[in-house]
């Protein structure tokens, strides 16, 4: 039996390592965003001494990369794919089509004219 156990997360559909990694990146970003904003404000504030601004710049550079917003990628919550994700539903193109045809998405129906 392994010493390490995975934490049970309620992330929705299919869970793979990419989805778990994306989930942890989103949580880390959310946790450190106020601190990053404060450091950015300190760096841009020209009324502060140059030494304080340089220290803030160094602290910001030394923060973990997962605290940046650019590390977060939109992924399908059902399949985990990163391509052709519809942001409003956080679903990939194929999953969106399947759920829309099944009538599982509110306000979405197949067009006919």
From TrEMBL:
Which GO cellular component terms are attached?
mitochondrial small ribosomal subunit
Mind telling me which Gene3D superfamilies this protein's record contains? Answer: 1.10.287.1480
Give start-end of the signal peptide: none
Keywords assigned by UniProt?
Answer: DNA-binding, Receptor, Ribonucleoprotein, Ribosomal protein
**What SUPFAM superfamilies is this protein classified in?**
Glucocorticoid receptor-like (DNA-binding domain)
Give a GO molecular function annotation for the protein: DNA binding
GO BP term, example: translation
A Pfam cross-reference name: Ribosomal_S14
PANTHER family linked to this entry? 30S RIBOSOMAL PROTEIN S14, SMALL RIBOSOMAL SUBUNIT PROTEIN US14M
Q: Which family does it belong to?
A: Belongs to the universal ribosomal protein uS14 family.
Q: NCBIfam families attached here?
A: PRK08881.1
Q: What is this protein called?
A: Glucocorticoid receptor-like (DNA-binding domain)
Query: What organism does the record attribute this protein to?
Result: Aspergillus ellipticus CBS 707.79
């Amino acid at each position: 039996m392994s010493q390490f156990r995975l934490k049970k997360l309620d992330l929705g559909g299919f869970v793979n390592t990419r989805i778990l990694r994306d989930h942890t990146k989103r949580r880390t970003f959310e946790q450190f965003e106020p601190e990053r904003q404060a450091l950015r404000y300190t760096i841009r504030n020209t009324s502060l001494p140059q030494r304080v601004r340089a220290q803030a710049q160094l602290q910001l550079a030394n923060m973990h990369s997962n605290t940046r917003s650019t590390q977060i990628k939109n992924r399908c919550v059902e399949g985990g794919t990163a391509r052709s994700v519809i942001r409003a539903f956080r679903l990939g193109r194929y999953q969106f089509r399947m759920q829309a045809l099944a009538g599982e998405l509110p306000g979405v129906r197949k067009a006919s004219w």
